[in-house]
Request: fold
Amino acid sequence: MTVAGLFGQLLAIVLALVLAPLLTGWVNQCRAWMQNRSAPPLLQSYYMLHKLFLKDVVLAHGTSSFFRTAPYVIFGCMLLACAIVPTLSTDLPLAPSADTIALVGVFGLARIFISLAAMDIGTSFGTLGGRREMLIGFLAEPALLMVIFTTALISQSTSVATIVETLAHRDFVIYPSLAFAGVAFTFVSFAENARVPVDNPATHLELTMIHEAMILEYSGRHLALIELAASLKLYAYSCLGLALFFPWGIAAGENPLGLLAAIPMLVFKLAVGGAFLAGIETINAKMRIFRAPEFLGTAFLLAVLGLLVRLLLETRV
Amino acid sequence: MTQLLAIDALLIAACAWLAVGLAGLAAPRNLRFISKTLFPVGALVGLGVGLLALFSLGQRPETAVLAIGLPDLPFHLRLDKLTAVFVMLLGFVSVGISIYAAGYFRKGEGTAPGLLCLEYHVFLASMLMVLLADDAYAFMVAWECMALSSFFLVTTDNRHAEIRRAGYLYLLIAHLGAIAILLSFGVMTSGSGDYSFAGMRAQELSPFWASVAYLLALVGFGAKAGLLPVHVWLPEAHPAAPSPVSAMMSGVMLKTAIYGLLRVSFDLLGTPLWWWGVVALAVGLATALFGVLYSTVQSDMKRLLAYSSIENIGLIVVGIGLTLIFHAYKMEGLAALALTAVFYHCLSHAGFKSLLFLATGSVLHATKERSLGKLGGLIHRMPWVAWLALVGVIASTGLPPLSGFVSEWLLLQGFLFSPGLPHPWLNMVVPIAAAVIALVAALAGFAMVKFYGIIFLGQMREENLKEAHDAGPWEKAGLVWLALIGFLLGLFPSSVIGVIDGATKQMLGAGLGERVREQGWWMLAPISAERASYEPLIFLVTIVLSVYLGKQIVRRLYHGRVRRSPAWDCGYVFQSSRAQDTAEGFSQPIRRIFEPAFRMDRHFPTGRDEKPYYTVKVEDHFWHWLYVPVARAAEFVSKLITRLQGGRISVYLMYSFLTLIILLLVARP
Reply:
């Protein structure tokens, strides 16, 4: 562990906390433009968070201490996820603490906590949301693991840093398996981040919501933390996707200048990715909840196909 | 002076367990003496057993010959490292269960406490003897003692017909399994008449007979472990038994079957054939998927856990299959990885599943209710049980940083590094198996959220739950012990792997120990740090630190004010506890998505019903496809045979006469 590594790690965490709400704001802005609405300001997410933090927490009668603990745990999980996904450099002191499989585990842990917290209130919408979230979760998680396995087979490692290093500094070869994996990953990240074909982040229409149903009873700082965690999750997924499929521009060494040079590249890639996400959300309609298994089943199948393509057709690197 | 060997000490411990059990008979109705003296003493013996096994993991194998048994056929015993791993599991897990049991048993629940104490300790001692046995005779005697004592424990509350039926089914399948095991041992002696394990090791079996012996062992031990299709007793017997017994059966007894399978396929049979591994892999995957699917749709909390045990046994057998494949191709490094995953999952499952079963015991005592649909909100009344059960839940969903994740991680690593098998077909099957495992792990999360969320969270679904009380001090202590095991196994994987590495080395000639030790105790990197690494402690510290800092910063910058009000629930006025999901409602998506996997009997309300109601009953396909036809056939055959019984003495005399003539014809010199 070097000073530069530590600096890079801290920078990555701070950057995640700064950029994540901005990314959410940017996606909302793009979506509003594409839908011919006047867009909220880019910093709207910050205003929202500030407002929520200022408000009192209103707890429903009959909620337990679990309900009050969960937002902090979810926030902690997402912060850890953002810390181990390489954004600026691959030299992260925290990276060895969790490889890609553990990264999937972190998302799983956060999911279990938010679903259980939703069930803790004991209202109809809470349990409905919790159940649906677990449904999406058990469909998406295997697909995500298969995507990760494909990249892990290419780089002969499950460590995120090693995967990114291998993929970033290889000769330019097009892997068909990565194409499959990339499409599957896109599907999964839509589902996992409660975006449009599977869930609608803007809805409060009772029967269609998933994520919103779980956090109905949260308010004040708890809601702020959950919203921040959701932004962090979107950021982590975007960065993971960028790191796996478009890894160029991530610094490999301990060079502080390389770190600083990587920031504009990252912001650029995130901006393009966010616009892409908004575009997909605009041209799609939300599907019925029982279409989600087909959607995610397709993702799972594509990911497994990618894995098989990797094993059968591609020569071992 | 002769030294006291570890194996002798273990035998003394077995005798001590028996003595504790017999002491219970001295005062069979004195609950205070039995629960507050005898069970804690049993727990102390368990601690001793665990520590002895830990010590003997670093020692050379020891043998002993007991004078008891048949003339010329004494009991041979042996304590090697494979045995030691499982004895350690038995010892340490039984400590938690025995302490818990000290506070659990009440007056007037079926069998008298003294008899229960005897059965329980005979069960413990016979499991220890199963692990120590070094010849088929001793093994089978101990195996049958274990089956019988656990049968009596299952039928503790034998006033209920369903419990007697569950016990009968258990006994039946246990004996089918025992026959298969006995036949397997018979094949392995290959007619030499030497029933000691050393003799079997020396036999050179032809591949055909070796395969027969392996398959018989898989069926026999599979019947005890709950592999498909001989799993049906498990979801019946576990809910029937008192909770400490369910915990002991699920946590420890199933592992003795895994031990037997490992002993036969790696030790007694020599080098395995590659397709043995494929068979185990396929059976294990089917079992795991079946178990987890059924566990998600259960409405009885102990049945849910029993199906989840089937799932975990499936995962363990998948690991064994993978090990067999690697071992058959002489890829010992990878085989060691997979075998370590097997051991690790045995240990971690023993810890967390006992914890969860015991937690259901406390819930059962507090509420007299096993059906999920009538529970809810117990975290308010039973905070200790609820938070400790959460440890078990997280461990059993295979999430970091607790114990379940480590074994799953190791298993997935084993799958990931499998390319390089010389068999192209296998290379293709293995990643698909990994995909199934990923699905199983994710579904396990669904089942556990259902289990925890419906029992402990939400509003209380029934009025009488308000009188529920938290567990007593003994029960709490037992739960805490098992939760500690979950944390220990989860947070210090490389130290634990260092301990069990001896067994891996003994069986495969290779282990992970050196490579893991190079990395330092906080880091788990079974191959190298570049390829894969996991640091659970740093993982946990990072999350805890960000939780703490997050809390502090928010408090300092803003405030910590809290108000209470009724739940909003989108503005609906009528809110009652009945609006929450029931167990059936929660698993509706699973029943819908995996509809062909279940045999469902449903009744939907129509618009015209006076009293609309909805029921769903989910049954096992195997029961109707396999067991019912077999039972009918058995009944048919026995009816045919009863025709011979005419009831007239002249007919019987004719039978004897005919038999005599046939014997004279056949048995000519």
